[in-house]
Amino acid sequence: MSRTILHLDLDTFFVSVERLLDSRLKQRPILVGGVSDRGVVAACSYETRSFGVHSGMPMRMAKELCPEAVIIKGNAGVYSKHSDVITDIIKEKVPLFEKASIDEFYADLSGMDKFFGSYKYASELRRTITKETGLPISFGLSVNKVVSKVATGEAKPNNQLKIDYGFEKPFLAPLSIKKIPMIGDKTYLTLRNLGIKQVQTLQEMPKEMLYTVLGKNGLTIWDRASGVDTTPVIPFCERKSISTERTFDRDTTDVQKLRTLLIAMTENLAYQLRRGEKLTACVAVKLRYSDFQTVSKQLKIPYTSADHILIEKVLGLFKQLYNRRMLVRLIGIRFSHLVHGNYQINLFEDSEEAINLYQALDKIRQRYGDKSVLRAAGMGARTIGRMHNPFNGQPPTILAHRKQ
Ligand SMILES: [Mg+2]
Fold first, then answer.
1. Of 111, 123, 133, 309, which one is least surrounded by beta carbons within 10 A?
2. CA 76 to ligand 1 center in whole angstroms
3. pLDDT for 346
4. Contact 385/244 with Cβ under 8 angstroms?
5. 249-278 per-position pLDDT tens digit
6. Which residues does the UniProt site feature Substrate discrimination point to (predicted)?
7. What is the Å distance from ligand 1's center to 152 Cα?
8. Superfamily of domain 1-163
9. Active site residues
10. Tens digits of residue pLDDT in 346-374
11. Right CATH number for 166-236 from 1.10.150.20, 3.40.50.2000, 3.40.50.20, 3.40.390.10?
12. Ligand 1 centre from 301 Cα, in Å?
């Protein structure tokens, strides 16, 4: 039985939110990101694109290309709140949906045709979102996630597109290979060097040939180019989380030691987030006293995966929790409300240097293990465990009762 998969994506999300807050910004070229000369563009309005501006570019360069642009320092907290409102609307209307990133959703509408007509349903959902939030959103509808995502991209801005069953291949054929999700800059160059420009060329190539050039990824790319994709919509669950905890051999009241361990644990979990290209919007800390009383506290935060933000939140929660002056038996940290996303989004304050620093540290960790570089403040902690990637499909390992 064929499926019906909807992909929804807000148009230039950060820019649209800024325009909602200040209508004078409508129709003007806008750059959102780090405002200092060393900042990076996190989002840019359509008006700036004809100047060659794109996200991820140094703000300095974007300013040179488009001097008339209004430059706005992003606010991850505000964007997260708007994202939550949209999530709630979708949650109410669609039984099975996936939150793929802060501004992107998949929904499985299979079986709905009999009753509603899924296209009509999707159109109504889109209208509702725009009406209730004031934010422009586009969608693509087809038999799978990949084709729907590409269709959304073709529909933009502020529009919708349905690809009928059986028309996946002809729809993709005339498009640039760049439009296929998974073909990044590097793969694009490799294929361009082979003279491949259009999806149609990929469709007509023998699958084995792509395997020879790109290995296993080549097979997936060939499937996607042909409009084939069987990946399921993964239900969004607020509790989707990663966590770590530690039980002490000997209960402790050494606050410095506890703080040190919390820093090391946070740093490690944050790295796991970044490695899985995830962001968290909820931090929780748990504490068990020697008399087994267990207390925990959680805090909703703007989507992030940056250590320096998370450490501050974790230590703040710990400070509020630890008030009995009694021996501590266990501490734990959990990050939940995870979505896909890049940590650049909350480095509005900082700069290219901060992004480069995180990337450099993570590169060292990838190469030499996740404890090869540590914050000095967390160095006292001897073991924090967890050497695998929790986003490879396996449920996260709970490190309960691991001895220090
Ligand atoms: Mg978007």
1. 111
2. 15
3. 59
4. yes
5. 888 888 888 999 999 999 999 998 888 888
6. 14
7. 10
8. Reverse transcriptase/Diguanylate cyclase domain (3.30.70.270)
9. 104
10. 556 656 777 778 888 888 888 887 777 77
11. 1.10.150.20
12. 21
